[in-house]
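Below is a filled-in request sheet from our internal design queue. Each sheet records the structural input a requester submitted and the sequence that came back. We keep these sheets so that new team members can see what a complete request looks like end to end.

REQUESTER: design group, bay 2
PRIORITY: normal
MODE: inverse folding
CHAIN LENGTH: 261
BACKBONE (tokenized):
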């Protein structure tokens, strides 16, 4: 079926998920929506996050998508269950897949989760990880400054490293062997995070496992695009398409990107 996959994020961070989806499912068409006008979601109320998520889903449905990926951890944590109840279309989030991935990787069963304030306060990662393996100890830390650091293009600077040092100090002292990057922006800070946590701690990006979950859903529902021609991506944002376009080109390594504002 050549109807597109819909991917939604609060802004540009979901491009890290789109990138993985394109690796795993290169022949699929994609419609991406980034709510750049209202980012960040991580510090908003539950009511607002739910409202914005439903609006984004309605928009993607109006674009005739066959499945929706909520790439945003915050929107997944707060709104996924409600969205799955409200809509008939298949909707997947990133937290179940991220949790599956961390459970399969930890050896000492002590793991860390970092995310936005809303994601961490929701306890969603802890619940999903514990559902898979009760014996795993989970330590969490909200890192609200990471998102603006990425948005301002400071990912590879000393500002990022110093901020990571402050945020991650306690987690490192807890002897974690695996750390979930529970926010779409954090994979873009991988180098600075790695610099602080060292080589011994595994970093888990939920995007990889989410793409595999998505492929399984498409196969199960028999809605894979059977054409063996590279899929087309269309990008929609609620504000500032120029900035989004620049970052998207850089992140995806593609010159020809059409962003609709
Ligand atoms: N996309 C959000 C997430 O993954 C991060 C940015 C925000 O706070 O909206 O949690």
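RETURNED SEQUENCE:
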């Amino acid at each position: 079926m050549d109807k597109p996959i819909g991917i939604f994020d609060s802004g540009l961070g979901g491009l890290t998920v789109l990138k993985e989806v394109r690796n795993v499912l290169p022949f699929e068409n994609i419609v991406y929506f980034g709510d750049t006008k209202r980012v960040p979601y991580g510090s908003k109320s539950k009511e607002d996050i739910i409202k914005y998520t439903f609006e984004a889903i309605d928009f993607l449905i109006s674009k005739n998508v066959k499945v929706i990926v909520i790439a945003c951890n915050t929107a997944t944590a707060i709104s996924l269950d409600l969205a799955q109840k409200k809509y008939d279309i298949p909707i997947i989030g990133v937290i179940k897949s991220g949790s599956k991935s961390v459970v399969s990787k930890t050896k000492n069963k002590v793991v860390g989760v970092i995310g936005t304030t809303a994601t961490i306060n929701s306890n969603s990662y802890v619940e999903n990880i514990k559902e898979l393996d009760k014996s795993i100890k989970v330590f969490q830390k909200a890192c609200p400054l990471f998102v603006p650091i990425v948005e301002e293009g400071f990912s590879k600077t000393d500002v990022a490293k110093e901020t990571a040092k402050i945020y991650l100090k306690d987690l490192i002292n807890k002897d974690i062997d695996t750390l979930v990057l529970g926010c779409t922006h954090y994979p873009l800070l991988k180098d600075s995070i790695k610099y602080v946590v060292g080589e011994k701690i595994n970093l888990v990006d939920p995007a990889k496992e989410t793409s595999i979950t998505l492929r399984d859903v498409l196969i199960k529902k028999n809605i894979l695009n059977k054409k063996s021609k590279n899929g087309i991506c269309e990008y929609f944002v609620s504000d500032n398409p120029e900035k989004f376009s620049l970052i998207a080109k850089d992140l995806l390594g593609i010159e020809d990107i059409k962003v609709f504002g």
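SHEET NOTES:
- The chain has two domains: 5-93+208-260, 95-206.
- The pocket of D-glutamic acid is lined by residues 9-11, 13, 39-42, 72-74, 115-116, 119, 147, 183-185 (CB under 6 Å).
FILED BY: M.R.
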